[in-house]
Amino acid sequence: MTSPSFLTLNLVSGLAGAGKSSIARASGRTSISLDGADRAAVSGAIAGTGTRSEVMLEIHPSAVPLEVAVAVMAAGGDLVLHSEAGAIRLGNFVSVLDASTFWRDIRSDKLAPEPPQPCATHGEHDRTVADALVQQIEWASVVVINKTDLSTAAECADLRDFVRLLNPSCQVIFARHGHSSVSAWLPPRVDMLTWLQQSPGWIRQLNGEGLLASGRTGLGYVVYRDPRPFHPGRLASFLSDTSTESGEILRSRGLFRLASRPHVVGSWNSAGPTIAFEPTSMGSHDPESPWGQEIAFFGRNLDGARLTANLDACLLDDREFIGGPMEWRSLTDPFPAWDLNQDDD
Ligand SMILES: Nc1nc2c(ncn2[C@@H]2O[C@H](COP(=O)(O)OP(=O)(O)OP(=O)(O)O)[C@@H](O)[C@H]2O)c(=O)[nH]1
């Protein structure tokens, strides 16, 4: 009996010029660029891998690593037909960060580069550079902080601490021109997809894991919970206030409810200066669905008491709350309408 052979695909993400190719070269791995995130793009990219047992798939800066991984698994059947490897397996999810530009990029509201070809998983292109960066960190098993020669040791350590805040489970490696001074990547996990889905710091904070944050450079987190819904007008004023009295929020993620849309559980998602609200598919009365707010904030010099007080002021007060959902619906709501029938299209 012959032992099964595998083609291991490491998914590599990073903004343009972060050092993805340098890392492939330094580690002696073949690198293939993946222009889309759909099954056809994945099958096409892998068709030429020949007898190699491991390659690095460079995903587009605007693609979400986890979505690409799902496409890779879906394309797995086709790939077995095209490649000489016996089966496809996911390797590490590697995110490459440019230490010299990271803090500028995470604070940017610029759009990430347009994907070169439209495909289902990209949808309408509205991903910002900051959003791309946080997704790349949160869905990584290995984060390589590259171009350390262009930053001070303190800046590199600060970036490492921020990465650990957003993704406490990943392996963090420092590199120059893709060459790491420390260890090699840890071997990929067998249950990589399941494991990654529990990795992001915001999921772990909301699950109550209470992870310790580094206080050295002021990086930290605040978890906000309250069973009451937000008043839409007061929440909009809070979001438009650019003062940093309660610290600098660099990332926030969670679930929330607007009083004017009482039966929809909303997704709260901010990266750098940009925030996006979307409806979730969670049922209003599901035991898993929060009644009000469950949001994890990550940033620098966060003043938990002040941030909590500011958010409390956005909730319905006692008099408004007693009015009930019929009255709440008539509150002026400045946020864009949600398409609640997306899945029915
Ligand atoms: N100073 C410095 N330059 C680096 C380092 N790593 C890569 N570079 C340079 O940065 C540029 C981009 O590096 P690549 O490895 O091609 O980056 P990439 O992410 O593959 O770039 P794209 O494929 O264009 O997205 C090249 O000119 C590299 O020589 C590093 O650690 N330090």
Describe this structure in words.
The chain has 345 residues and is α/β, with parallel strands linked by helices. 30% of the residues lie in helices and 24% in strands. It folds into 2 domains: 6-199, 3-Layer(aba) Sandwich (Rossmann fold); 204-344, CobW-like, C-terminal domain (Hypothetical Protein Yjia, Chain: A,domain 2). The protein has helices at 20-26, 39-46, 65-82, 102-106, 129-138, 153-166, 192-197, 201-206, 232-240, 304-312, 318-328; strands at residues 6-14, 30-34, 54-59, 87-98, 142-146, 171-176, 179-180, 219-226, 248-256, 266-271, 274-279, 293-300. The strands form 2 sheets. Strands 2-3-1-4-5-6-7 form a 7-stranded mixed β-sheet, sandwiched between helices. A 5-stranded antiparallel β-sheet has the order 8-12-9-10-11, sandwiched between helices. Strand 10 and strand 11 (274-279) form a beta hairpin. Helix 2 packs across helix 3 (65-82). It is globular. The mean pLDDT is 87. The chain binds guanosine-5'-triphosphate. Guanosine-5'-triphosphate binds next to helix 1. Guanosine-5'-triphosphate is lined by residues 14, 16-22, 146-147, 149-150, 176-178. This is GTPase, G3E family.
Overall, the morphology is globular
The total count of strands amounts to: 12
Could you tell me how far the N terminus lies from the C terminus, measured between alpha carbons in angstroms? 49 Å
Strand content: 15-25%
How confident is the prediction overall: mean pLDDT?
87
For the record, what CATH class of the largest domain applies? Answer: Alpha Beta
SS class: alpha/beta
Protein name: GTPase, G3E family
InterPro entries: CobW-likC_sf, CobW-like_C, CobW/HypB/UreG_nucleotide-bd, P-loop_NTPase, Zn_Chap_cDPG_Synth
Keywords: Chaperone, Hydrolase, Nucleotide-binding
Domain CobW C-terminal: 219-315
